[in-house]
Design goal:
about 350 residues, alpha/beta, Urease, subunit C, domain 1, TIM Barrel, 2 domains, 7-stranded mixed sheet, 20 strands, about 30% helix, globular
Length: about 350
């Protein structure tokens, strides 16, 4: 199969003709990009997505498939099904559902490569939009969770008793541990960072802020982090703050933190045991607090470009850097031998075509 346009490669934009099967086979440069103008990008990668298209990860296999199909239509070709804090039996059921999708992927779905376990080991004082079922870190329970599904990321609060032991165990097995929903001091966060919790969940949200005499978790991230995730909707983090963070955290990558309301009209939806409400472009709890987002990564890309990032950098921040962080060496870039996970955008950066492992799904 072939596609022609401006191809966003690791070396920069190239006008050319891209050939591929399941993997990229070659790129033939052209003197000029063909008209009408279009851009060919690596498929988007979302490492924090609870739902979309009316479906919520906590509802099980069918819902995970539904959200994976929805996000594929917006250019996401790889994702982590993300849980919320809930009674243990509900988390276990969600993990079983996600595992079924990991093991038996469908052609029209973004590939679910595992689970982001957000909670339950979080601070009851920084729940954010998480349902109120936090637990103290429990290694035996995590081992049960890991037996049920491939857990790739765990978000936890560093200040909780037992957190450092759990971080070391997870990091020693290649799980990415992220600090989030936390009241940790700078010293507590640093201890967790040194134990292996090198990531940061929805940076700035549900964590201790930067203050000149107590840097908190945010301050630690700006000082030490190579990678961190940020929600790119312009509601959770002001664009000026995001641009500033880019100077400090080279591997800052964008996630959606999307919930079931993404892609749906205004109204009431589920986020685990919580009711959430879409109003305009935001999603909120009944008390008005933000509750995940309605974001898709194609809109996040357009946001980044609108906020002043070059298209090639925006593409890295919705694809390449997330792949690097998670150790997905076969995707996140357009290069010979890489998976043919591709997104074709028109001149307005709107999705026209999506390919997952060389198969067109849109």
């Amino acid at each position: 199969m072939e596609l022609s346009g401006t191809v966003i490669t690791p070396q920069g934009p190239v006008a050319g003709r891209l050939s591929f099967g399941e993997r990229v086979e070659g790129l033939e440069p052209m003197a000029t990009a063909p008209e009408p103008r279009r851009f060919i990008l690596p498929g988007f990668i979302d490492l924090h997505v609870h739902g979309g298209g009316g479906a919520d990860t906590m509802e099980g296999e069918a819902a995970v498939r539904q959200l994976a199909r929805f996000h594929a239509q917006h250019g996401t070709t790889t994702l982590l099904a993300t849980t919320v804090t809930a009674p243990v039996e509900e988390i276990e059921a969600a993990l079983r559902g996600a595992r079924a999708v990991v093991e038996r992927p469908a052609v029209d779905e973004a590939q679910v490569v595992g689970v982001h376990l957000e909670g339950p080991f979080i601070s009851p004082r920084k729940l954010g939009a998480q349902p109120p079922y936090p637990l103290l870190p429990d290694l035996e329970l995590v081992q049960r969770f890991c037996a049920l599904a491939p857990i790739r990321i765990v978000t936890l609060a560093a200040e909780l008793p037992g957190a450092l032991e759990l971080i070391r165990w997870l990091a020693g097995r290649g799980v990415r541990v992220q600090q989030g929903h936390t009241t940790a001091t700078y010293a507590e966060a640093l201890a967790a960072f040194e134990a292996g919790a090198r990531g940061f969940t929805h940076l700035f949200n549900a964590m201790t802020p930067l203050v000149q005499r107590e840097p908190g978790v945010v301050g630690l991230s700006l000082e030490r982090a190579r990678y961190a995730e940020v929600i790119g909707d312009g509601l959770h983090v002001h664009p000026a703050v995001l641009r500033g963070v880019l100077r400090a955290i080279p591997g800052l990558y964008v996630v959606t933190d999307a919930v079931a309301a993404a892609g749906m009209p205004e109204g009431e939806y589920r986020m685990g045991r919580h009711a959430v409400y879409r109003k305009g472009e935001g999603v909120y709890l009944a008390d008005g607090a933000l509750a995940g987002s309605s974001l898709t990564l194609d809109r996040a890309l357009r946001n980044l470009v609108g906020w002043g990032l070059p298209l090639e950098e925006a593409a890295q921040r919705v694809s390449t850097l997330a792949a690097e962080y998670l150790g997905l060496e076969d995707r996140g870039r357009i290069a010979v031998g890489a998976r043919a996970d591709l997104v074709v955008l028109n001149a307005g950066l709107e999705v026209e075509e999506v390919y997952i492992r060389g198969e067109r799904v849109r």
